[in-house]
Amino acid sequence: MDQIPNAQHEADLFFALADPKRIDIIHALEKHPYNVNDLTIKLGTSQPTTSRHLKILRERGLVQSTRHGVSITYALSDPRLIQALELLNDISSK
Predict the structure, then answer these.
(1) Where in the chain are the domains?
(2) Could you say which DSSP state residue 68 is in?
């Protein structure tokens, strides 16, 4: 059976968006970049949990990381991600 060329990539993206905390991270990063400690405080999660979510988002290309000495700052890779989430919400609410 032939697979649609982008199906696996799209499935990986939807996996990254399948957790409410990861979506919370995306919305937090809409405003400005954060490091793990700041996101942990903002989201009320543990540091290992926040790091795990960021790793998943980074591996799928949804967030990017920048090292500043010992600190790593995370930002959205593309601001259109917020528009994509809004579009998905609009489609699913019909």
Answers:
(1) 7-92
(2) E
Reported as a single tens digit per residue, the pLDDT across 52-85 is: 999 999 999 999 999 989 999 999 999 999 999 9
What is the distance of C-alpha 78 from the center of its chain?
10
CATH class entry, domain 7-92: mainly alpha
Structure letter (DSSP) for residue 44: T
Which residues have C-beta within 8 Å of that of residue 2, sequence separation ≥ 6?
none
Q: Residue 68 forms beta bridges with which residues?
A: 71
Cβ neighbors of 57 (< 8 A, separation 6 or more) are 16, 22, 25, 26, 63, 74
| Predicted confidence (pLDDT) per residue in 7-49, tens digit | 888 888 999 999 999 999 999 999 999 999 999 999 999 999 9
